[in-house]
Amino acid sequence: MAPALGLLLGLLLGLLAEPGGATKVHSLHYLTVAVSEPSPGVPQYMSIGFVDGIPFTRYDSERGRVEPLTQWMKDGAEPGYWDGQTQISVRNQHLDARNLEIARERYNQSRGLHTVLWAYGCDLLSDGSVRGSRRDGYDGRDFISFDLGSGKFLAADSAAEITRRRWEQEEEAERLKNYLKHKCPEWLRKYVGYGQKELERKEPPDVHVSGKEEYGTLILSCHAYGFYPNTITVSWMKENATLDQEMEWGGIVPNSDGTFHTWARIEALPEEWEQYRCKVDHPGMLEPGLFAWEPTSGRNLTMAVAVSVIAAILILTVLIGFGVWKLQSGRRDRSGYNVAAGKDVGMNGSTAGITA
User: Fold this and answer.
1) Ig-like domain: from which residue to which, for each copy (predicted)?
2) Which are the contacts of 94, defined by CB distance < 8 A and separation ≥ 6?
3) What is the C-alpha separation between 253 and 203, in angstroms, rounded?
4) Domains, the chain, with CATH or none
């Protein structure tokens, strides 16, 4: 479970990361996973929507219907919304099932576990601009991506280059740009309106610093719990120098209560422990805070507080499938995935998954 958790959180971190310059105000992202061989707890197809990092809608092939995951979405959605979104998701489910068959046939792969994943969405930034992207993968690795800033597709290998050329011939970039720049922000503003009281609240983090000495090295950990929104900066400092390059960051993890937690870890010389401070900055704090390790029972002090909450069951369901997907990828043919784009419309108007 632990490796799978890290892999999924890494992907979510990539989706929710802050850009340089303008900061993110609100975000709307979707994560879609299709597997060729479903198993108990891992449906054949699943799509989850996130507003500001919080899961708010879900569709999976076992339930067969798009459903709300927050009360504000359940109360705010207009009549006909759920039926319309379900039709889109069912269509995308069939497309991705065909995608898996095409990929396996073209690479002469045996039957077994194969996966298609695509993630897309947009961010509203503090300067009024919009940032958007889409990423597609097959069997645990990048296949093709699109960034609204460049307006171009980036192929991961020669096989993906075939898809890139076909998408450009079919003017897929223009359709995707229109979705990411206009339709996605429109939907995002509507969703934020539904849950404004919940989504625009500010809850500061509860910060705990711990230390543990292993084989002559002191490992300092800084944990921030229960904060909202998910915009946060956690960094380690030695005296007045910020040590971002030396630091390991755990990403921003959603909690089951709608808040988030994160951590940052660094290695230090045991005799220099007093020189280190953890700096935390969050919109719910009046000013950035500096937090030091205060050993109370020797250098082998265990973590002051265990992880405060467990991520939602929904998130765990997806990460199991995603983790299996990534673990299987090491045994796959790395030559690529020669598929082309379809023109079906995906969740809330985005382009659907890759198909021939």
Assistant:
1) 205-282
2) none
3) 15
4) 2-198+313-349 (3.30.500.10), 206-291 (2.60.40.10)
